[in-house]
Amino acid sequence: MSHKRSLSSAPGKVILFGEHAVVYGRPAIAAPVTQVQASAAVTPAAPGSGLLIAAPDLGRQVTLSTAPPDDPLAAATRLTLAHLSAPEPDGILTIHSTIPIASGLGSGAAVSTALVRALGSLLGRKLPADSVSEIVFEVEKIHHGTPSGIDNTVIAFEQPIYFVRERPVQRLRVAAPFTLVIADTGIRSPTKKIVAHVRRAWKREPAHYDALFDQIGDVTDEARRAIEAGQTSALGPLMDENHELLIEMGVSSPILDELVEAARFAGALGAKLSGAGQGGAVIALVEETADLDLAEIIGALTEAGARWTICTQVDSPYHAS
Ligand code: PMV
């Protein structure tokens, strides 16, 4: 075992297309957001002291040996140690995160990913992305109940993905990078609650909801073709269409709709809620070369009530090839 301090990190994420429908087997598109990060560091301690996990930003501290099975930090640790067939190390695992909680930016999955990577590195083992993703998926089940697996996949692979649940990850080739503004309502939106709300509605009206999921799947497939062809301007109307379908699904809210409208009015090519909805964030697509538009869109979103905005670029490692 290494005696050095092991520091690892993981980005946030944003869903571009297909949230909720992805839980029902339709495709979705997501990308990492590197402007926000979770990080984890393990400092070795004296033999016999066991592992203490501290997450001051989340107001959490647990001792591994006494933490309950459903504690997400302890669960991520136990799953990683089991995967590596390693005993509990002696040390202090400290986690920090700049990713807002319950805003659709993948805070839970990013914290778990950073933790899993830090433990792997402490034990001298670099875990491949698919193993990290599998471990984090198990932890996501504690947070979310029935997660599709999109958060753990996009965060562990750290690149834009086209995702269908229970299928191998498909990396997305972004032919022309594009810019998004993410704007948060400041309203925390627990994914588990909204996913359960959609499930109840689907059970009441299965034909209606299946049709909505199918339409979202079609929009997502069109968006994939546009992204791979470098047709960024085609993405705007597809985002608008996806937002309308999410409104019909009952997961939007007045403030989400106001932010979407404000972004479009200020010149965004398209906008939609992102993540579970009923709170959390919206995303707006900004024309590639328009600095002026960017400032105007950010200003309009702030005036319409956004708590914070992040500007991020969607690109893939395959872009140059
Ligand atoms: O974690 P969030 O808020 O980005 O939502 C995840 C997206 C959902 O499709 C609503 C749920 C899921 O597990 O895919």
What can you tell me about this protein's structure?
- The longest helix is centred in the last third of the chain and has 24 residues, at 206-229.
- The protein folds into two domains: 6-171, 2-Layer Sandwich (Ribosomal Protein S5, domain 2), CATH 3.30.230.10; 178-314, Alpha-Beta Plaits (2-Layer Sandwich).
- It contains nine helices and eleven strands.
- Strands 1, 2, 3, 4, 5, 6 and 7 form a seven-stranded mixed beta sheet that branches. A four-stranded antiparallel beta sheet has the order 9-10-8-11.
- A hairpin with a 4-residue loop joins strand 3 (51-55) and strand 4.
- Helix 1 packs antiparallel against helix 3 (129-144) and helix 3 (129-144) packs antiparallel against helix 4.
- With 321 residues, the protein is of the alpha+beta class.
- The chain has helices at 72-83, 107-122, 129-144, 150-157, 191-204, 206-229, 235-249, 254-265, 291-303; strands at residues 6-17, 28-44, 51-55, 60-63, 91-97, 161-163, 170-171, 178-184, 270-274, 281-286, 308-314.
- (3R)-3-hydroxy-3-methyl-5-(phosphonooxy)pentanoic acid binds at residues 15, 19-20, 22-23, 104, 144, 147-148, 150-151, 191, 195, 275-276, 280.
